Structures are given as structure tokens and as C-alpha cells.
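Forum: Protein Structure Q&A
Topic: Joint prediction for protein chains with partners

I've read a bunch of threads here and the consensus seems to be that you should model interacting components together rather than docking separate models afterwards. I'd like to see that in practice. Below is the full input, 1048 residues plus whatever partners are listed. Could one of the regulars post the assembled result?
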Amino acid sequence: MSIVKAVACPVCGCLCDDIELTIEDGKIVKVKNGCSMCESKFLGYRNEHRTRKPLIRKNGELVEVSIEEALRKAAEILADANYPILYGWSSTSCEAQRVGMELAEEVGGVIDNTSVVCHGPSVLSIQEVGLPSCTLGQIRHRADLVIYWGCDPWSAHPRHLERYTTFTEGRFEKSDWKGYMKKVKASTGKKKVQSALRRKFVKNPPQLMLQPETMSKPPPAMMKEGRKLIIVDVRKTMSAEMADYFIQVEPNKDYELMQALRALIRDQELDVDTVAGVPVEYLEELADAMIQCEFGVIFFGLGLTMTAGKLRNVDVAISLVRDLNMRTKFAIMPMRGHFNVTGANVVSTWQSGYPYAVDFSLGYPRYNPGETTVMDILLRQESDAALIVASDPVANFPKKAVEHLVKNPLIVIDPHMNATALMGDVVFPSAFAGIEVGGTAYRMDHVPLPLKKVVEPPEGILTDEDILKRILEETRIVKWRMMEAS
Amino acid sequence: MELLIKNGYVYDPINGVDGEKMDIAIRNGKIVKSVRGRRAKKIDASGMTVMPGGVDIHCHIAGSEVNTGRMLRPEDHAKDFERKTVLTRSGVGYSVPSTFTTGYRYSRMGYTTLMNPSMPPLEAKHTHEELNDTPMLDKASYPLLGDWWFVLEFLQKGDLEECARYVAWMMDTTKGYAIKIVNPGGLEAWGNDFYVHSIDDQVPGFCITPREIIRGLCKVNKMLNLPHTIHLHTNNLGVPGNYVTTLETMKCVEDLATDDKPVMHVTHCQFSGFKGDSWTTMESGAEEIANYVNHHNHLTLDMGQVIFTDTTTMTADGPFQYTLHELSGHKWVNHDVETETSAGIVPFHYRRKNYVNATQWSIGLELALLINDPWKIFMTTDHPNGGPFTAYPKIIAWLISKKARMATLKRTHPKAQKRSLLPSIERELSLYEIAIVTRAGQAKALGLKDKGHLGIGADADVAIYNVNPEIDLSRKYKTVRRAFTNAAYTIKDGKVVVKDGEIVRYVDGRTMWLDVKTAEPVKVNDEIKRKFKEYWTVEYENYPVTDNYLKVSNPITVKASV
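Posted by a regular:
Agreed with the consensus. Here's the joint model:
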């Protein structure tokens, strides 16, 4: 039995690197410090859906083959293809992503990652407006106003608050944990009193003079000392329950709300009573809190990137933060989903100059989201082969895109028989990055961290990096033979 | 593997060779006295200029700040791309090229060694990953230490020895080459939205001044016997009137210089040489700075020359970059790194007809020409801040030819022309001096014993340029410019890698770093690990750059005096 410390968790963009694993007989038996997603991955990755051997579809059925046969078939598909797409990349290591870039360039294909369905709009906005930001440690040490807009850290990035924001101890700011506990106790107390009253006065329970969150006067929480937590969302999420202040914005109206705030922080007056369903007095208080804070930060998610306006929402959010820097210190950061989607952007940028949707078909990198993004290529039915790594487009993409994806030769590299692998023509089983193979991953704030190999992969299972290197080698041989023959 | 370069005009300033016609013999990647075998490959360099391979002491080519700059500027890349060939990977330019393209383009100009000057220690792995993908050259990187909480705290306490041990630890942890200081104290202040306006301002929360940081690290540098001096980007960079701060900064380490050797390198000095008190009254402070440097021997500088083009500014100087955004209105990236440093990126267009930009252009050249000793001032653009490195041949032309610089000056803003000192400067650099400011001087300041010269035992990094030194270089400056744009031959470790400006062989190059041996290593006990957890959001174990991050590792052992 051994204990491995300082393991980086390969699940979400938090990339918590303080996980402690207990290994017994080559298996992970205990996870310490992780959230439920972390535990679920480390304890549950070994299951019946694990692919054991390479597979090729023959006569409509996937049959087990040798690795050599699978490599040859994959190489033939890629060498033959006119416009192949190589997609995924966000759940594997940077080392594998680098080979992917080389392979895409070799076959003149398009390499794209999951940004295209997630924070692609954020990338586009950053390219237009810039990004006033920082690493997460700066938030811990300095931020006294933390805003989560259009995202739900409690569900999607569970340890974000306790590791990086409101519930952390910083050099210049203290944790708000005690404040939160007091609030929880108060609200539990309120609920107890309410239920007692209900039981006593069955017919006409007296109304307790409580202050529900969205009444005509904003709660004093806005002006309290220490760290403040504000959640902006279309519905009251579990994160909102923890917040000092929750703003319920009408769906698809974030753009208007942010523009209103931009006007307010420039000391302009609004002629309307509400914006996006929020009374203007609240917005004025919020604007005041933003201007008066020492260091504020906005974290945002798909609530902005995938609602009406998409990249325009992010545009305005970044512009709001940029404008706030005229009056105080403010930062903004996208809540990246996969543990290494940032890595995919980073590797793609340094090698090709562009963060995603890179088209090598003319022999040099071209970037034109809308034209070279994999989703649009599939919808226009232009690709004629695909290599999918570390993602599951068959489960996530729109139906029309999936139809075209499976109509053409499909190579899949994945540890599991996921939906995409089930539709594959060549399937390579691979090892789990961060569990069975090491490498590098980038956190949502661009800090690189090492992934650890904690246990051995099952017999005969290769890593993404190895498989891709061998496909690349094999493809070069096939292409050379094709050239010789012609 | 033997190579013989025959009959070229050799410029090797470190060994005092000034245009002598001689042969250069190479064996197994090193310069040797002569070749033995008849099978040695021969290169006929008759009528051509032979110099050591170019050394760039300050160019932002790898790491988190550079890569964000790359991502920020798809419009910059779209106009300048390179196709994949059998030997080379595809890529893009223009002001922030992709990594492979960076390597190829430098190599085509005859460069063989690059120094990446800004590496936030927390993100050092990123820098090294990108350096691994920058082929054709040897490279190294400087960790940013001037605002590191450990340094600020130790210096405030006066504990120089412990500070030195931690700096040594940091060199190993980040696989770094020199102590880089940017706007000392200013970056920590910026973390909480404050500014530092002079070297005696207090840094909020730390009870220390920039003067104390600079002096402290200067002493630490000497205690550790590091090959390069501290590498400093001054406070108040880019502010009209900042030449006063620059002079004070230069003076503040004067007493720390013993034995006439430099103790500080002031980088991209052009940006720190402004007189005046506003953008309308701004003018050149180059004369005052040159005067000081001419009478003191404890400094080296590099130009930070401005080129009239669209480029991307990127430095660790977050507050300055914010000011630049306010001035220009261009998109702005800010990236403060916890516990350590900052960064900022703003695209910028230097225009001939803009008074300030034209004056900046003049300042860079004035510094290079008014400072008499070429061993004290080197040619850089602070790529890409002043302009892309591909513009280096232009600067060479301006330095060797008054005709060239007057031709450019004539087309700039009229008021800038009137105030510029260039019309009164007759000096034209010789090829010997060009060899100093583009390679020999830079290598010497860096303490790279085997680079920047062609003496026996040196690394066989050679550049051959198709220009005959016997022509009137000043009149024929365009020939010189063309020659330095596409090297006739670039030789790396004794192998021909570029011929007539084309890559003919791929090599990886090495990543150099300092293995500093202190008498007692840093005791990383539980107390330090606990402090680590308090200061950073990563575990102590995951912080260092481990050996697997360096494709070709080239450690240089340094014995410290502490």
C-alpha cells in the first residue's frame, strides 16, 4: 500500500493538484481532498466500458485486431482523405496534443478542440478586446469582490471557491467561510422558526418579517466588510444559495445587463426602471460595490458564451472589466471545463499561431472560425474522414453534424467505448492521462502543472501520445508509398 | 565531422580579429586550429564576411506572455505565413511568430543563440515547452525575480545570504539563466492597483523600495557568481522625463562595482531615455545617458530600437502596458502572476509621422552612436516591443551608414527631425563594431564563454554573410542590409543549417541553464513547504521544471560564494 501526494486531478479546469491517493495492489482505493467528480474519476475509471484491444469495423461489426493492422488502416484513411478533421484533445496531455498538431499538418487536415462548443466565443472576444486577468492565486490573496456570471461553480467546479476565491485565506484578504457559516446558521434558524410557526398556526400562519432576496431594498450584504460573493444567473443555483447577493437576469438578456453596468460605472444615469428584469436600484448598488472594491473578479461560463449574443456577451463582459480598471483593480476569467482544454489552446497557438480551428489543407495554418471550425465543416458536409481523441462528439454534437461524421471513415482514440467509439471504423484503446500516464496540463488560468502516472494501464494499452506517434509514422510511410506508386 | 571555411574576411572582436582574411577550421562542433583530413567539407567564403553566429540578449520568443500575444493577433498572422516543407514545419509571423517559424527566421539571419528575457517562475514549464519547439538555436530564459515575495521579504529583513540561496534554488527550479528584474516593486504594487513612481517609493505591504531591491539582487548576483549581471527593466519605463529615474538607477549600484566589470544590464534603454514632462514636450534623453555610460564602466545596455511598423508590445511591466492601452485604445491583456510578477500585452503601431514614435526611433540610434564603447551597448528591438527581429538588418544599415539613417529621418515628423541629434552625429559603425553589438558584446555580457567568438574551443556557431567589407559600406548600405537578411551560410555546432537564406538542415539546439552550487543548499523543510502552500495555489512538488521539460538540456555549473 502506498500513498501518492500532490496529484493533479484530471477532470475540470480547476486542476486541483493537492489530491492524495492511496494505492493498493496497483489499484486506487482511496481519494483524499478531491470533490465528488474527482473521486468518481479516480475510483470509477476502471469499468466494463473500457476498451481492451484495437478494433476495426469489418462487415458492419467491430472486431478485435492487432495494433499493427489498426495503425495501417488508420494511416490509410488519413493518407487517402482530402479534408480530414482531427478533433477533441481537451482531455489528454500536452505531449499528445503536440503530436496531434504534427499529424494534422502532415495530412493537411483541420485540427480543432472542444473550445468550439464551449469557450470558443470567449477566445474570439479575447482576440477582439483583450483580457484583463491574472492567475488564481492573485484572487486568493487580493480579491474582495468575487462575481460568478453565467456559471455554477458549486456543480461544475466544486472546489473553486475553497481553493481560489471566497473561502480561501489570502495575504491581503481573509476567508469568508465564517461569514458563510453564520448565514447558513441564520437561514437554518429561519427555516426552523417558519416550520414551528406553521405547525402552531395551521390555519393562519403569521408572516415572518423576512427579507427575501429580490425585494425593493438591496440587502446590507453589499456593503459588508471582507470578501463578497455575487452570483448572476437565470435561476437560483446551488452557488447562488451561498452568495451574499444573487441577481436573477432574464434569459438571453446578459448583454443588456452588462451594458447597463458599463453605463453606471461611468456615472451615467439610466432612463429605465429595470434592465433584464433587474431593478435599476440594485444595479446601482452593484455598480457601487464594483467601483469601491479593492480587487474584483468576474468568472464566467456558458451562461454567456452559449446564450443569445454568444461572443458579444463575452465582448461586453471583458469591456466592463476593462472599464472598471479605470477606477479600481478588476480581472475576468473564463471557467474552462475540461482539465486540459487550455492546454489544447496553448499548444495549438504556439505551434500554429492559432488557438483552435486550424486548417492545414493549404500547407500552412489558416484560421477562420465559421469556416474552419469543425462543427461548421461537418454541417457543410465538407470533411471526408475524422480522427477523434479525448472527446465524444457523437454524444455532444448536433444531429446533422453527427450524421456527416459517421458517414465517413472515423478513427477514435479513447479509453472507453463511448458513443463515438461505438460508431467508429478504427478504435484504439488508450490510457487515462493523469492516472495511467503522466504529462502536462494547463489550468484555467494558464498555469502548467504536471500530471502524474499513479497506476499502470491495463496490459497492452498504449498512451494517446504513443498511438498518435505511431499513426503519424505509419501515415508518412503510406503517403511515401502512394507517391512512389504514382 | 570536419568543416573548413576558407578565405573569408573574419571579424572576431573577442579575439581581436578585424577583417583578416583567414580560414576557420571546425571539428566535432568546435572551432579548432586546423582540419586534419582531406575529406573535410570546404566552404569558399572568398569575398564574404565571416562572423560568429548572432547572439540576441533580449527577445520575447517563448512563454505564457508571448503565447497570449500570439493568440491575441490572428490578424497579424494572416498576412505572413510559411508553408510546410520536407525539412520545416509550417507557421506564421509577423510580430509574434509561431515557435518553429521563430527558430527558422533567426537562423536564416545567421543567429545561433537567443535569450528569452521574461519567464514567470510559476509558468516556467510553459516557457521551456515553447523553447523545445524553437529549433535551430541554443536558448536560455531569465526568471522574473524582482517582485517575488521571497526576495522582497529577505531583502527587507537584510538576510542577503538566505536570499541568495533561494535565488540559486530558483535558477534550478525554473532552469533559468539570469536574474531578471522588471519595474522592481512596481509589479507587486500593481497587484493591488498601485504604482511606483521613483526608486525610493515604498512598495505597499512590503516596506521596501525599488532601490533596495535592485541593490540587494545586485549583491546576490555577485555572491552567486552568476555569469550575467542582473538584467533590469527600469521603473517608470515609457514615461516622459524618465531618464532621471534611469540615471538614478544606474547610479544606485555604482558603489557595488569592483574591478571595473559590469554589475548591471539596463535593457531596451530607449524606452527609459525620455526627457520632458508630457507627450508634447517629450524629447531625447540619450545624450545624458550616453554621457554617464561613457564615464562609468559598471553597466551594459541594449538599444530597444523602434521600427516603424505594426507590432505587439509585451512585457512583464503590467502597469506600463495598461498605460499604453489607455494611450492607444488598443486591445489589452493583463496577466498578474501570483506571488511573483505581472505581464501585459498591447498591439502598437509606430508611425513615422507621429512625433513621439519618431523621437523614440531617434533615441535608440542616438544611444548606440553616442556611447563610444560598443562593448557597452548592444543591438536589440526588445522583440517584439520595438519591432520584429526580422528588422535587425535595417538597424545594422542605420548604424553603419549616416546616409541610411538620414534617409529615414527625413521622412519622419518634422519636429522630431529638428530635435533629433542624428544630423549632428557623423559616426558610422564598422563591421568590427557591428560584430560586437550583434554577437561578441552580447555573448561577453552574458558570460557565455564558448559563444560569440571564433577562437579555438568555441562552439562552432558561425555566420557567413555575402558582403565584401572592402566596398563602401556606408554608401552601399542596402547591400549590407540584404546580406544580413539572408545569411549565405549559418553553421550551428559545426553543421551547415542554412544556405543562401534557406534551411538545409534541422537541428534542435540546446537549452542552457545555471546549476548554481551553493555551499549549503536551500533547506526545504516542512516550514518552507507550508509557506509555499500559503503563497501559491500549487503544491511545492509540482512547482519545479523537472528535467523531462528540457528537450536538450545544457546545464552550466556555477560555484557560488555563499
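The two ends of chain B are 42 Å apart (CA to CA).
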